[in-house]
Amino acid sequence: MLENVSWGVFLKLLGIILTCYYGVVVFRYFRSDISGFLLKGKRMGLLGNQGKNRAKSKRSSIDKLYAMLDEIDPELIANAETKAELIQLLRQKVRHYGLPDSNTARKILLNHLLLVAKTAQVDLGEEELLVLFNT
User: Fold this and answer.
1) pLDDT for 12-58, tens place per residue?
2) Which pLDDT score, from 0 to 100, does residue 94 have?
3) Sign of the CA dihedral 39, 43, 46, 48?
4) Which residues fall within 8 angstroms of residue 110, CB to CB, at 6 or more apart?
5) How many CB atoms within 10 Å of residue 124?
6) pLDDT digits 0-9 by tens, 57-101
7) What is the 3-state secondary structure (H, E, C) of the chain?
């Protein structure tokens, strides 16, 4: 029976099996990376369908939020010796990037700041951060 299977058929079948196997492995272990990549492409595609000025401002607002979140990390908090100094550093970052327009983005930023402060064991409350947003 194996004499009837040519090398070409064998290699095609082997290629299909390996492709399926690695597809399952990549999907199972890298699902979040794949979905992030696909969603990023869809988001950019959806923004491209809107008016140019609106899409550009939306994209820049989101990019500013991402950039601000990247720069506000435990290292920034470690550089501050006092709570007042930390609030001053955060105020500088907010002035540099500007506050997000939507309340959802502000809530994301607030939660991120609270988590970073908590991991760095800094006693920083939500009220103090809300004051930071209002100035």
Assistant:
1) 999 999 999 999 999 898 888 887 777 776 555 444 444 444 444 44
2) 78
3) negative
4) 126, 129, 130, 133
5) 19
6) 445 677 777 777 777 776 677 777 777 787 788 888 777 777 777
7) CHHHCCHHHHHHHHHHHHHHHHHHHHHHHCHHHHHHHHHHHHHHHHHHHCCHHHHHHHHHHHHHHHHHHHHCCHHHHHHCCCHHHHHHHHHHHHHHHCCCCCHHHHHHHHHHHHHHHHHCCCCCCHHHHHHHHHC
Residue with tokens 């401002």: 57
Give 16-20 contacts, CB < 8 A, sequence gap 24+. none
Rounded to whole angstroms, how far apart are CA atoms 31 and 119? 27
Asked if 90 contacts 132 with a C-beta cutoff of 8 angstroms, the reply is yes
Which single residue is written with the structure tokens 């007042």?
84
pTM over 0.70, yes/no:
no
**In this structure, how many other beta carbons lie within 10 angstroms of the beta carbon of residue 77?**
19
